[in-house]
Amino acid sequence: MKIISYNIRGLRKGVKKATIRKLVKKRIYMLCLQETKKEQIDKVVCQALWGDSKVSWELQLACNRAGEILYVYGVNKLSNWRRSSMAMVSFIWMASGFLMAKKGLDERSAKEFNEWITDIEVEDVPCVGRKFTWY
């Protein structure tokens, strides 16, 4: 199961939308976008990102749009998965929000946060000689 979390820092540019569509083609289950900075998120926006009319989304708002998180997922994919693992969906939503909240960590807190990531067995995708972890 592939779930991608991406701090997009603004969704206005076509390059970012094209990157998201490439990620979705990797047959992911859910896409978590942080800081879309869009004034309006609706079905049209989510369908364009997901590349399918059968899409659902949730939007978690934050102050000044700086920490908002958009969750986009295919209706069929997640509805099947949701039946067997609703607790996992709740965890993903909580974890992606937690990751955004921990952005300005001091060194000690960062160490504790990395230990938490290890404890819950979430994989930190290596950069493999690149500046960022995306494809």
Automatic annotation (TrEMBL):
Its cofactor is Mg(2+). GO terms for cellular component: nucleus. One of its GO terms (biological process) is base-excision repair. It comes from the Eukaryota. Keywords: Hydrolase, Magnesium, Metal-binding. GO terms for molecular function: DNA-(apurinic or apyrimidinic site) endonuclease activity; double-stranded DNA 3'-5' DNA exonuclease activity; metal ion binding; phosphoric diester hydrolase activity. The keyword Metal-binding applies. This is Endonuclease/exonuclease/phosphatase domain-containing protein. It comes from Glycine max (Soybean). The lineage of its organism: Eukaryota, Viridiplantae, Streptophyta, Embryophyta, Tracheophyta.
